[in-house]
DNA sequence: CTGAAAGCGCTTACAG
DNA sequence: CTGAAAGCGCTTACAG
């Protein structure tokens, strides 16, 4: 008689029935203990390393572990300890380069800390976030990191009821009270962009912005004001969506409205790449006929050899700090530090800006 | 006397000590049972819905659940049932648009099935994959979906020892025996690209390829051969990395080597966008002076209003089938269907190709 | 339809 | 340094 056995190995081998014990369904601590001639508590002690074990005993246990191919069951451990060593991560999407980078950086940091990553993309939808939060609660994640405020600002009270530490990062909306947050001075980024263009001598500037980035625009506006220039409302053009396509359309609109524009501030990388494309389609070269400042990251879309001038965000540093803040709160009785940490962006000067022709 | 209580609510409120019972650290089935005046098994029955419960009893239980804010502890359930309702997903990276899309689609499908997603990016590194696999094993995921073969072909034996079903998808290398796989006929995609260019009448063609895509190139080559044209080895230019920057450099190299080239096949979307950029930098318009066929997806990088001609892969369908195959294998004693499922790509004709000038 | 018992595989005090 | 006991919060047969 044969039966299908999913116990070990490939998973689907026909194995002879063994009525004595239920196959080798999973080797447990007890099996290791028997083999090594100790109790399972001793096995636990060598596995976790929290209690010292006589070297000769430890050697026997380790040998048994190796022979049996024992792997600790973290689900059981989690139930006993109350810690899953898993962190949830909310991001609006993973298709935007900035958030994709955050996910990879978070994963990297978590791996170093022995944690796993439960990913939830919210698609900027508060309702999705609410469902995910419920899922994370029943699944007992140790902590939750929320990257980006989009769609979430109305749902903060919900997050306040979470059973685990919640840390906010990349938070561009007004900072809510009561949450630890690691974020960036987004307005300062806009300021850097504005000052740079003013220093180059630009006077006829336009902005291609995402509706999610009023703060970046405000910083830009402030820089111009500092330099005696008023940014007219009509010079700010909003892209309906943060896509390349919309970026092109919006830039064309901006340049048609004000053909004399010599410099353009795009509030994120995809829009900046689109702006260059749009300018060229009108026969205007970058930076010869139009300077373009990007934001978030250095976008693709210029020729190799030349690079964008861009407000670059300290994304990696932000993620690391946020992960550590969240993980630190897990086992500290004191709770996380609620003072907001704000990192500063930097202006990286590339080849997409020049003095007005 | 106050103590810091992480039990419920915000997590870090000073709460009066309650020596009777350990605060409200977590409300459990037993609490609900007491409140409703039943045993916890009855609570379990209404929560899981597997055993019918008298309506009046059920109402009492549900009321108690609501009043107490009870949330089932899935860790405990997992230990009891042996199922975590979590699937692992390996992707090479999340920064490439194609894989980012796969992650979001997988998450979507899993959510519908009541599953969560444990994400692991392998960075095309077999050693990372091996570590992740160990993590997933101890964490008892129900299944693992592996998207993309990069860096993994040498580690298949390891995967064969997994304790859970492993499904491969987006597998471009030779199909390994013994694994269920949902993939795409990548060669056919190359064939479609080649035939299209030949039908338009191109004779001087070049290829800008990733080293990971020999099969796509082979299909392309075959299409030309069918049409009496031999693709010289010198016409295939490999991009060192799958980045925009490398794509530009490689295209420039290709066009300098054969200035008479009238059409170009790029083996993936980012390279195609880069090719257009490179061509324009040489003063050649697309498709007027150079036709470009993309692959994977419709890339950004042409003007709004015009689109790429591209070999488009049925990514969503592939992911859905793969997830269902993996999840189906979880509770079927029979094991997954090992016959490879191969989906066909489609050629979407856009504005980036035309008859040779 | 409801209740008492055993068990999932670990860890955590607590004796020796 | 090692062992016996209790418990984490659930589910799964199995009686009533």
Polypeptide structure, described:
- The structure is a homodimer of 357-residue chains.
- In chain A, the strands form 3 sheets. The first copy, chain A, has a 6-stranded parallel beta sheet, sandwiched between helices.
- Chain A is 41% helix and 17% strand.
- Chain A has 357 residues and is of the alpha/beta class.
- Chain A contains 12 helices and 14 strands.
- Chain A is elongated and about 85 Å long.
- The relative contact order of chain A is 0.11.
- At the A-B interface, helix 4, helix 5, strand 4, helix 6 and helix 10 of A face helix 4, helix 5, strand 4, helix 6 and helix 10 of B.
- Chain A binds a DNA duplex (16 and 16 nucleotides) through helix 2 and helix 4.
| Average predicted confidence as pLDDT of chain A | 89
What is the level 1 CATH name of the largest domain in chain A? Answer: Alpha Beta
What is the approximate shape of chain A? elongated
Largest β sheet strand count, sense and barrel closure of chain A: 6 strands, parallel
Low-pLDDT segments of chain A: 1-24
Helix/strand order of chain A, N-terminal first: EEHHHHEHEHEHEEHEHEHEHEEHEE
| Distance, first to last CA of chain A | 87 Å
Helical element count of chain A? 12
Helix coverage percent of residues of chain A? 40-55%
CATH architecture field of the largest domain in chain A: 3-Layer(aba) Sandwich
| Number of spatially distinct domains of chain A | 3
Which radius of gyration of chain A do the C-alpha atoms yield? 27 Å
Organism (chains A, B): Streptomyces litmocidini
Protein name (chains A, B): LacI family DNA-binding transcriptional regulator
InterPro entries (chains A, B): HTH_LacI, LacI/GalR-like_sensor, Lambda_DNA-bd_dom_sf, Peripla_BP_I
Keywords (chains A, B): DNA-binding, Transcription, Transcription regulation
